[in-house]
Specification:
With 765 residues, this protein is of the alpha/beta class. The protein folds into 4 domains: 127 residues, Chitobiase/beta-hexosaminidase domain 2-like (Chitobiase, domain 2); 324 residues, Alpha-Beta Barrel (TIM Barrel), CATH 3.20.20.80; 72 residues, Immunoglobulin-like (Sandwich), CATH 2.60.40; 152 residues, Sandwich (Jelly Rolls). The protein has an 8-stranded parallel barrel, surrounded by 5 helices. Strands 31, 32, 33, 34, 35, 36, 37 and 38 form an 8-stranded antiparallel beta sheet that branches. Strands 1-7-5-6-4-2-3 form a 7-stranded mixed beta sheet, with helices on one face. Strand 19, helix 12 and strand 20 form a beta-alpha-beta unit. Helix 4 runs parallel beside helix 6. It is globular and about 90 Å long.
Amino acid sequence: MVSRTLKVFFGIILLFFSCKSKEIPTEIPNIIPKPSSIKTNNAVFTLDENTGMSFDTQFTISANFLKQFLKVGGGIDLKSGTTIAFLEDTSLPSEGYRLHISKEQIQIKASTDQGAFYAVQSLRQLLPVSFENKTSSSKTIKIPCVTITDSPNFKYRGMHLDVSRHMYSVDFIKKYIDAIAMLKMNTFHWHLTDDQGWRIEIEAYPKLNTISSFRDETLIGHYNDQPHQFDGKKYGGYYTKNDIKAIVSYAQQRFVTIIPEIEMPGHSQAVIASYPELGCNGSNVKVPTKWGIFDEIYCTKEETFNFLEVILDEVLVLFPSEYIHIGGDETPKVRWENCEHCQKRIADEGLKNVHELQNYFISRMEKYLNTKGRQIIGWDEILEGGLAPNATVMSWRGRSGAVEAAKSGHNVVLTPTSNCYFDYYQSDNEDEPLAIGGYLPLEKVYHYNPIPEELTSEEAKYVMGAQGNLWTEYIPTEAKVEYMVFPRMVAMSEVVWSEPTQKDYNDFTKRLEQFNKRLTALNINYANHLYDIEGNMIVENGNAYYNLETLMKDKIIRFTLDESIPNINSEVYTTKIPIEKSKTIKAVVFDAKTQLGKPFEQYINFHKALGAKITLDKTPHKAYAGSGAEGLINGISGSNSRYGDKEWLGFEGEDLEIIIKLNKETEINTISTRFYEGKGQWIYKPKRIQFQLFDTNGNALTEAAPIYFQNNNSTSKNTFKAAIAFKALKAKTIKINVESFGLIPKGKQGAGHKAWTFIDEIFVN
């Protein structure tokens, strides 16, 4: 009898704790960007039709956003009451908040409506994803009890969108702003004008909208593809003032500031197509139909400044932002050098050259905008010839511009190509949609630190934050905008919001796996590379192995070596694969039952230098260091269609000497390598390359005869091969000298800058 009673008692106890365990959350919620502090409180809050909300008028925007989100997304219409309470806490920073959820109440504390809005965005991520696509059917929602104390690391947290090359609907621009706000970013940099199109209504100069806003046709394929081909279709349009007013108002309700960009003095051919008198030679030109940099530039005569001031007056009425972006990048000066008006301006103003003329131009426009109570921001080229007194620099060509500006006491925003250009490829999969080039995977975005290491702690205070950029030459549709931006925008949100000490990439990918469900519910066409496989060659004690990894450590990799596509019955990868001959490895990520990722495939070309010692006399550029020098002899070729993946090494305008020391004296018949060429990205094949062999004692076995590059040694649209044959010479050391292209000539993109050199695998057989 006693035994039976005890069994019943313990059964009741187990049932009690079993029921409780279903209600009490045991894991920290997957919030992005990661909060400064988050603690679980081992209980749940019940949200239902009886829930009430109270707020003072200072929290109107954030409270109304939450009320509308719950009503539209889940059919829960909050009543008047204090179950959800917005409370002022002046001790919190302006964009900070404290979200405290207990069993009885949700408290949102902030010193501003904006801070409270960000608390709402965190609360939003604690709700079921069905609220995002309005499919929630439950009228009772359990929310985990947590306490979150949070504030941003940087005050400028931005996303950019170019609508001059391709433009998108008003509804899509609003959707873009919604995503910015959801991720607690606060700035939308709207690139409205460029050579290929003018996208803002201007009443004073109607030709901007009848002529400058349209191009006759558009380039098909990549700029580097020759010969250029076009679609033959007129393209264009612009946003009306009413469109812009509606978008600005929409953004304000989400605490997103829109910074308009009106390009000057370069990137202005679309304007000069309408008003040729604003150019230097008055010649008639058309709105360009292909991408790149064009020589047409605003002339520095008074008529031009009057024109721009009138335009800016109309722009200022539409955009209340403190900053106006005036571009200033990629400004060819050949027209100024041969223009009597510009040369007279140089003389009259006591300037030294056309670089100081650019400073005069930018400073004059800054002075005008300052009289209107606004500040200018421009790309880092505005540093050329001296920096305008109050200008903020947006550093895109690396971090040197940011360092120079910050050390001079100017505010800076970091947006370098290496970590912030989302028009670059995000995967080395060959089936990725066409992009401008480059390689910027999610992890590289996530690990970016906007504070240049060259700055002192005092100088670092001038770093306002960072921004992700999306240039749209190769992005004609809204779906592709989303594909290129997401999830890299999600990673960027954590770069600019979360404390560096809080960041952990493995933790981020686990949270992203859940956040992707929210993106799906929001009908956002994100790129999902979480289940991609990363392969790496490993050399140990002279033996080669291939290692497979996937981001999601709780998943399974299955692989084959017989050219077949792995399936659920294929061998499970558990340890590195020996490489003793050329072979193809194929692999796929699975969970217990289902294929998750796309098939991975890697051909390994086994050759005689694999596992040898290699040294370079120059260090690859930090942004394009790939797998290091060893990556040049690991048996793996880089992508045919893009530079910057881990198999290509990039050098900025430097000659290069490569020394390969084989493990033993080896018979050599051929050596080959290849170089990338993308003139639109300032990448050129070298002038020449030469190979030389040495025996064990260091004696030269061959002459160092140079190979000069010709246009007929192309191995693909973008790569050029260099190869040399020997008569079975036994050598211990290989020396390769590469002479870079040098300065980019006039008339080409990047004219006057050092050309980049990108080199791929060196095969020795």
